[in-house]
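Recall the central idea of this unit: under ordinary conditions, the amino acid sequence of a chain determines the structure it adopts. In this exercise we apply that idea directly, starting from the sequence alone.
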Amino acid sequence: MTRSRFRTDRGLSLRMGGVSLGLGVLYLLFAAVLYQTPLGALGFVVVLAMAWGQWYFSDSLALKSMRAQVVEPHQAPELHAMIDRLCALADMPKPRVAIAVTDMPNAFATGRTPNHSAVCVTTGIMQRLDADELEGVLAHELSHVANRDVTVMTVASSIGLLAGFITRYGMYFGGMFGGGNRDRNNNGGPAFIVVFLVSLLVYAVSFVLIRGLSRYRELSADRSGAYMTGRPSKLSSALVKISGDMSRIPNSDLRESQAMSAFFFAPAINRESIGALFSTHPPLQQRLDQLAKVSAELSEQG
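Accordingly, the structure predicted from this sequence is:
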């Protein structure tokens, strides 16, 4: 695998390896339990098919969830020029470029590999940030793609969705494919109680795995993006602007974007809300303190 010029982060690599191992165990556990229920082999196939689909179509699904449109260079020349420059600096393939029409100031990266990825910005963030600040945000997002942590996050998020899907519709499918009434009456109830409990366990464990990886990967992307552009102060300025304006976004708009919050540059929550306690992102001050250290280090090197 060709390495980009973004700084490597051993801590991120170790965390991604640990999360991947944990996810593998969860998938096997989930599939084994489903195989023992009236769903049988069908349940196993459903889990594999949904996991594969979530991974393979991750970029398209993410863009559709935000109603984002892929734009060509003639439609957004300045945005494309920034990404062209950063990709050249980082020596990485250029992702698809998309814009979501929403006042919420944010950006995200998605995709299964660097060759099959997309970077999306909202009209809200383009209106609020100057060129240097936006470039810092784009460098942050491109580092997610280069480090492949966005791929691990996609898979990690999908297993929670699978657990919820099986919990909600398992009884229905079990009734359709579980065999005769006698078998369903004798075995269906206890079997799906087990599925329900295992689904809750899987969701809880995946929640912890996602939060642990997500917070660290944001710090890692801040560092990588700041070193790549050489202007950590601009990334700090972008963080302050976006975090301050997020409280002005209507709660209804924030709720609509909750499914993508883990992938955003800044969490789609009001900092004063209870959701901030369970945020997928580290506290703002922690991110600013880290960028200040990067700035000091670059000044010493200069």
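The two ends are 32 Å apart (CA to CA).
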